[in-house]
Amino acid sequence: MSKDVYRSPKKRGKIAVFLSGRGSNFVAIHDEIRAGKINADIGLVFSNKQEALGLKIAQECNLQTLSLNPKDFTSREDYDRKIVEEIKKRDIDLICLAGYMRILTPLFCEAFRNKIINIHPALLPSFPGLHVQQKAIDWGVRYSGATVHFVTPEVDMGPIITQAIVPVLQDDTEDTLSERILKEEHKIYSEAVRLYFEGMLEVRDRRVFIL
Ligand code: GRF
Predict the structure, then answer these.
(1) Which structural domain range is residue 190 located in?
(2) ∠ CA 105-97-60 to the nearest 5 degrees?
């Protein structure tokens, strides 16, 4: 019997996107929202890097943005505590990590249990961590892909929502493989967010059922 069951809400939700770089996954989600395919609004785009391209794009789209410099805080916990406060102020329902290059502290993960999701450019649990497209090539796997998963304190190990498979070709470089995986990321990330606010995701222990 399952000890721990969580069902995502069926409602018009408010999303916060966390990013540190170019923000193509953020743009993909934003586009799907504007096309009326996701029942949500983006209430905040947050970054740990003021110069992140994704943050600039968000500003151009007139979305609310916030960046906090980790150097202005005494510890990782302090930094995350401030973000928890900012998120709670805005009544955010779901946090989408989209190339957010900071590990979240357990206090942050616990504050938003079942309310943080992430996109990872490999088929988890294979290849957690960084530079995973190159690792897939180096291992000689025939297939890699992308994974959307709930975030827990153990990095890249939370319950898996959805995955896409991408073949690894013999002449692939890190760039060519990354590019093909990224196209799939954009599709499955938007789809996962859509399902979330359709109330269709049920987390039972470490498995996610699509209802
Ligand atoms: C993506 O490959 C994502 O899987 C990883 O970081 C990258 C972010 O790309 N977590 P972008 O900023 O969304 O373009």
Answers:
(1) 5-210
(2) 125
